[in-house]
Amino acid sequence: MKTDKLILTGVAVILTLGSCSRDSRSELSKLKKQQALIEQKIKILEQSNYTPAENTPDPVKFRFVGVKDIRPEVFDHYIRIQGKLDADQNVGVYAEVPGTIVARYADVGHSVKKGAVLAQIDDQQLRKQLESLLTQFKFAAEMFEKQERLWEQKIGSEVQYLQSKTAKVSLEQQISAMNEQIEKYRIKSPVSGTVEECNIRVGSVVSPDPHSAAFRVVAFRNLKVSGEVSEAYASRVQPGDKAIILFPDINTRIEARVDFVSRYIDPVNRTFLIESSIPQSFPGMKANMIAVIQINDYHSDKSILIPMNVILNDRQGSYVYVVRKKDVYDGAFKQPVVIGNTYNGVAEILNGLTANDKVVTAGFHELIDGEYVRFDKQAEAHFGGSSN
């Protein structure tokens, strides 16, 4: 009996162990299937650049920026200089000889004709000399006439005839020279116009000083502006260039052309002269009035333009931030640029940007290369940008 019990007990243990082994294998197989499914899901998510939820960027926390859509634009560069208004007939009238003013016939504001006598310098001594020459000439002329009649009648010598003729001709020449000299004692207007300056009075002494005009007569026709341009622009300014002329004192703006470009550079200030005609006069214009001349020395119909204040610099050179896709979001990235001409707060970009690029124009000072961004509509409206 005891032996039978032992046998039965051993059989039960064997059956129990066999049953446990089958359950373990089943559980292991089930777990392996679950592991394979999980690994497959992980692989799929890794291939789709999935980022775990705890590291996913929050769009609400992205930095606000304003952007400008790059499009080709017209660009004009101007050289700005200061000039003055003048006229072709704006002349200083100077005394030709020294002397005392005995009469003045014109004053400031008087209209005068070309050749009109403006003032008289004392010429009494010359006139007395002229009277003496005229007396001598009268006698010489009578003697010549008598000698001529006698010579025609073959009376007298040829020498006598020639001497009388020479005396007469010599006095004629002296009288002509004296009249020319006397004429220099009359200060005359070389042009028709208005007397704008009168620097003499009766009794004052004048001299032919090129730095001290007795009168200034201005004919306010054929107006022009002139100015001096730095030698650095010698190759960029040409006759025919467009010019914008501003008269700040009378708030007037005129479009014109550069008519004259000097080929001479002043050795003292290293500048050259330019002139531009004014098509018409305007109320309030005066000779020597200050004019601001803007010369268009560069023009492009299709330029990439950005505000100068958005350009940053580092050791590598100039750069801007542009917006590009980063994963499924927008990011701001440093973009090196080559700058061309600049004018009026705008820079022409020669290399580094193309049409349809989005340049950050607001909020760029604290950006980090590659940082996620979102668009500020108000900043876009201010800078003319678009987030699309």
Describe the structure.
With 388 residues, this protein is of the alpha+beta class. Among the domains are: 59-71 and 311-383, Beta Barrel (conserved putative lor/sdh protein from methanococcus maripaludis s2 fold); 80-85 and 221-300, Efflux pump adaptor protein, beta barrel domain (Elongation Factor Tu (Ef-tu), domain 3, Beta Barrel), CATH 2.40.30.170; 123-184. The chain is 28% helix and 39% strand. It is built from four helices and 21 strands. It has helices at residues 2-47, 124-152, 158-183, 377-383, and strands at 63-69, 73-93, 99-104, 111-112, 117-121, 186-188, 193-198, 205-206, 215-230, 242-247, 252-257, 260-261, 271-277, 290-307, 312-314, 317-326, 329-336, 338-343, 346-351, 358-362, 371-375. Strands 2, 4, 7, 9, 10, 11, 12, 13, 14, 18 and 19 form an eleven-stranded antiparallel beta sheet that branches. A six-stranded mixed beta sheet has the order 15-16-17-21-1-20, covered by helices on one side. It is rod-shaped and about 180 Å long. 18% of the residues are buried. The model is unreliable at 49-54 and 378-388 (pLDDT under 50).
Topology:
Layout: H1 2-47, E1 63-69, E2 73-93, E3 99-104, E4 111-112, E5 117-121, H2 124-152, H3 158-183, E6 186-188, E7 193-198, E8 205-206, E9 215-230, E10 242-247, E11 252-257, E12 260-261, E13 271-277, E14 290-307, E15 312-314, E16 317-326, E17 329-336, E18 338-343, E19 346-351, E20 358-362, E21 371-375, H4 377-383
Parallel strand pairs: 1-21
Antiparallel strand pairs: 1-20, 2-9, 2-14, 3-5, 3-8, 4-7, 5-6, 7-9, 9-13, 10-11, 10-14, 12-13, 14-19, 15-16, 16-17, 17-21, 18-19
